[in-house]
Specification:
The protein has 942 residues and is an alpha/beta fold. It has an eight-stranded mixed sheet. A seven-stranded mixed sheet has the order 16-13-17-18-20-19-24, sandwiched between helices. Helix 8 packs across helix 18, helix 21 packs parallel to helix 26 and helix 22 (667-679) runs parallel beside helix 23 (699-706). It is globular, with a radius of gyration of 33 Å. The chain starts with a helix and ends in a 6-residue tail after the last helix. The relative contact order is 0.07. It holds the Pfam family OxoGdeHyase_C. Its EC number is 1.2.4.2.
């Protein structure tokens, strides 16, 4: 066939798939194609390299492919005519790559157009005399014919790629995605064609955006609202996004955004009543929360009608930490998709609205993008809208707040197409929004709208930007506003009468005076099939009491299911021993260890209809080789085959089980899991840190969502954190889960902090988290060495009966009257204290475990102390340094002191105060640990 093509010097369109397949193979591995073709492609690549820089699919190769598709077209073998033809195709491709650099994107027009040689015809040797010459347009979609003059081609590529829209997508490796974008943009030359009524609708949206801001500015002078003025087209984008998404089958849209324009989106997109907003400006609270939050952090939900049917809108509550809401939204969306069994991810759409400085500056976005296409965290693509004020924070110098050309360059890491658009062209904004939603729906990946605008006022309404940005704000002061520019344009076009735009303003203001919307999009009384009923959990008084027992016969059945593997499934020898032992545990022949107790807890919840989701960097196996919730067939030949999850196969009709080893991220993943928990009360989401200190990287999520979300926004979440902790000589980081940080955050029964020490305790604790009608975050300080400690085991009967014990009294028979000292502790150190007491044959010192540090179980604790009538000393013993651990919380809250009432002396035994969580020298660790144990029993180290 190669000889036939060479001899005829022709490439026919019918051969295009064959040629493209060869070319793709050549790109991956040049040696995979026949020698003649490799030589030919090498020659084309060498010829293109001299003309075009940094192009993955070189223009000359693209020309070759497209001529083959358009055929018959003669293969370029030389000659001036052929050279100019190739140069024409190179020029078209250059605009696809670089045309955005010349696009009319800045409403303030502050910068001159940069010099981009590749966009000049002269770069390819063209002169004025060539402008009327006809050339083949290759794959360029702007013409209905194969031929066009160079002048027409230049006009078309510049209109398509250098107008109000600047597109970036040629870095995408999937050719079908690039072709899809080219077909849609180039066929209309990136120019929308809206009817007069559609244009009036767009004007009404811009008018609503601007008028609301100006109304608030005069009604509530000086109050912070983080105005959208200058970025008014955001409301146009949201309007178009919702309507297009609805027509494509979306039934829910979850939105995350920070402050800028939030109030405007609440009113003009979600349909929040202006009267409610005004009440918030006046300091009135609709719901009596213990803390509440400022108005520009609040969330909202509503149902609106689109051409495709009703769509439920949710704007997530957002703290001040800017982009941190983004993974929370993704987690909420994922939970909703699971609830709907939305495997195609068409029904629930995540939308994130960013600021230009924050999207590039906040590392959580990189983490989130990194998991956007993974199995356990991918939501089928997110539509990102960057409200690009071109300034970041008020005092930003453009030289200082990013290193990339565009603030959106971060999205290139996942090959998301980016559509830069001039915010002063609302029709272009609507066009790229529709394009973005359609792309996401087609390819299930992220897509970005970079809405380039400006900020009329300062960072907030009390800020004066002229102090640090005099040049920019002179331009801003001269700008008439997006609404005025668009209104004048529609008047010139004859779409609007001269006084019609002003009438729109007056009409909108009159409705604001009444505290109502001009056109309320909200559907009242809409009954959603997949809505979650949180009422069973609202207003519940906190209680520790909950029957979490499971009959022994059922536990034995669950154990059988957990250890029953598919026929021929080959386990690793070490894992086989674990599974064999678990089978014996289920039969009551061996005591239950930690891993089995935990797996039985999940299995028992699943058969009750609850869902379970395990997430973290090594949760399938378990960092400490203890969980083995996911088993791997050692005979498998492919990496993506041979994994078996027994918890997914307990019985028909069980709850859904998810186990996902996460990307190497804490902040974004934990934010995702919190979002999941807020959307799904009937699932147990569990996030496990590899070591407890790994949660340090997610402290923002813990501080601003997990510990305070209910107090600020009334948002409940049953998220569980498993944080391995224990001083075993593993150095400063991998000893401590920073328990003190969680204790400091405890108040108002906002969350639970527990330190279970037996498999029965973790079994009942995890079950309590779902069986009890409370949805509070649970922080579990979990063990490392105890996972295989010979004494940290439980009998099957302990799981079959009882409940989680917040306090465990001394388990050995002591003469209570002889006890003069009680040692209080939590966690691993208990077993070391007991070993020392037995070794020293101490009979007058009791050891009590506090298994729940918060809410502090005062009644149970008082009851245990009451067993010792002659008690003189109470010692709090902890492994952590005295300035860490639970001690300062106990001391500051006086929980222990209140119970003692001055009748006994309260003492502390701990490591010395330290700037580091633990020592790194193993010998020093051992010496310190020895001293802590001895001091607890009154032995003073020399």
């Amino acid at each position: 066939m190669m000889k036939q093509l060479r001899s005829n010097s022709m490439l026919f369109g019918a051969n295009a798939p064959f040629v493209e397949e060869l070319y793709e193979s050549y790109l991956s591995d040049p040696d995979s194609v026949p020698d003649e073709w490799r030589t030919y492609f090498d020659g084309l690549k060498a010829g293109a390299a001299a003309a075009v820089r940094d192009v993955a699919h070189t223009p000359i190769i693209t020309a070759f492919e497209q001529m083959a598709k358009r055929g018959p077209v003669r293969v370029v073998k030389g000659g001036e005519g052929n050279k100019r033809q190739v140069s024409t195709l190179q020029l078209i491709n250059a605009y696809r790559f670089l045309g955005n650099r010349w696009a009319n994107l800045d409403p303030l027009k502050r910068n001159e157009r940069p010099h981009v040689a590749e966009l000049e015809p002269s770069y390819y040797g063209f002169t004025e005399g060539d402008l009327n010459e006809q050339f083949n347009v290759g794959s360029f979609h702007a013409f209905s014919t194969e031929q066009a003059s160079l002048r027409e081609i230049l006009e078309a590529v510049r209109q398509t790629y250098c107008g109000s829209i600047g597109s970036e997508y040629m870095y995408i490796s999937d050719i079908s995605q690039k072709r899809w974008i080219q077909a849609r943009l180039e066929s209309i030359k990136a120019t929308p064609s809206y009817s007069p009524e559609q244009k009036k609708h767009i004007l009404r949206r811009v008018t609503a955006a601007e008028t609301l801001e100006k109304y608030l500015h005069t009604k509530y002078v000086g109050q912070k609202r983080f105005s959208l003025e200058g970025g008014d087209s955001t409301i146009v984008a949201m309007d178009e996004l919702i309507n297009v998404a609805g027509t494509l089958g979306a039934q829910e849209i979850v939105i995350g955004m920070a402050h800028r324009g939030r109030l405007n989106v609440l009113v003009n997109t979600l349909g929040k009543s202006p009267s409610e907003l005004f009440a918030e400006f006046e300091g009135k609270a609709e719901v009596d929360l213990s803390a509440g939050d400022v108005k520009y952090h609040k969330g909202f939900s509503s149902d609106v009608m689109t051409a495709g049917g009703p769509v439920h809108l949710t704007l997530a509550f957002n703290p001040s930490h800017l982009e941190i809401i983004n993974p929370v939204v993704e987690g909420s969306v994922y939970a909703r998709q699971v609830r709907r069994d939305d495997a195609k991810k068409n029904q629930v759409l995540p939308v994130l609205i960013h600021g230009d400085s924050a999207v590039a500056g906040q590392g959580v976005n990189q983490e989130m993008l990194n998991f956007s296409q993974t199995r356990g965290y991918g939501t089928g693509g997110t539509v990102h809208i960057v409200v690009n004020n071109q300034i970041g924070f008020t005092t930003s110098d453009p030289r200082d707040y990013r290193s990339s050309l565009y603030c959106t360059d971060i999205f290139k890491m996942v090959e998301a197409p980016i559509f830069h658009v001039n915010g002063d062209d609302p029709e272009a904004v609507a066009l790229v929004t529709a394009l973005a939603v359609e792309f996401r729906n087609e390819f299930k990946k992220d897509v970005v709208i970079d809405l380039i605008c400006y900020r009329k006022l300062g960072h907030n309404e009390q800020d004066e930007p002229m102090v640090t940005q005099p040049l920019m704000y002179r331009k801003v002061a001269q700008h008439p506003g997006t609404r005025k520019l668009y209104a004048d344009r529609l008047v010139r076009e004859g779409v609007c009468a001269e006084n019609e735009p002003d009438q729109m303003i007056q009409e909108y203001r009159e409705h604001l005076d009444k505290g109502e919307l001009l056109a309320n999009p909200v559907l009242s009384g809409h009954n959603r099939k997949f809505a979650v009923d949180w009422t069973p959990y609202i207003g519940q008084e906190y209680t520790d009491e909950c029957d979490t027992s499971v009959p022994a016969t059922e536990l034995k059945r669950l154990a059988e299911r957990l250890t029953d593997l598919p026929e021929g499934f080959v386990l690793h020898s070490r894992v086989k021993k674990i599974i064999t032992d678990r089978a014996a545990m289920g039969r009551g022949e061996q005591p239950i260890d930690w891993g089995m107790g935990e797996n039985l807890a999940y299995a028992s919840l699943l058969v009750q209809g609850f869902g379970v989701r395990l997430s973290g960097e090594d949760v399938g196996r378990g960092t400490f080789f203890h969980r083995h919730a996911v088993l791997h067939d050692q005979s498998r030949e492919r990496w993506d085959e041979g994994a078996y999850v027994p918890l997914m196969h307990i019985q028909e009709g069980q709850g859904g089980m998810q186990v996902f080893d996460s990307v190497l991220s804490e902040e974004a993943v934990l934010g995702f899991e919190y979002g999941y928990a807020t959307a799904e009360p009937e699932h147990l989401p569990v996030w496990e840190a590899q070591f407890g200190d790994f949660a340090n990287g997610a402290q923002v999520v813990i501080d601003q969502f997990i510990s305070s979300g209910e107090a600020k926004w009334g948002r409940m979440a049953g998220l569980t954190l498993l944080l391995p902790h224990g001083y075993e000589g593993q150095g400063p980081e991998h000893s401590s889960a920073r328990l003190e940080r969680y204790m400091q955050l405890c108040a108002e029964n906002n969350m639970q902090v527990c330190v279970p020490t037996t498999p029965a305790q973790i079994f009942h604790l995890l079950r309590r988290q779902m069986v009890r009608k409370l949805r509070k975050p649970l922080v579990v300080i979990t063990p490392k060495s105890l996972l295989r400690h010979k004494e940290a085991v439980s009998e099957l009967d302990e799981l079959a009966k009882g409940q989680f014990q917040t306090v465990i009294g001394d388990v050995e028979k002591l003469d209570a009257k002889k006890v003069k000292r009680v040692v209080l502790c939590s966690g691993k150190i208990y077993y070391e204290l007991m070993a020392y007491r037995r070794e020293q044959k101490i009979k007058d010192i009791a050891v009590i475990r506090i298994e729940q540090l918060y809410p502090f179980p005062a009644d149970k604790f008082t009851e245990e102390l009451g067993r010792y009538p002659n008690l003189k000393e109470v010692v709090w013993c902890q492994e952590e340094p005295r300035n860490q651990g639970a001690w300062y919380w106990f001391a500051s809250r006086q929980h222990l002191a209140k119970v003692l009432g001055g009748k006994q002396q309260l003492l502390l035994v701990s490591r010395p105060a330290s700037a580091s969580p633990a020592v790194g020298y193993y010998a020093k660790h051992n010496q310190q640990q020895k001293e802590v144990i001895e001091n607890a029993f009154g032995v003073i180290s020399e």
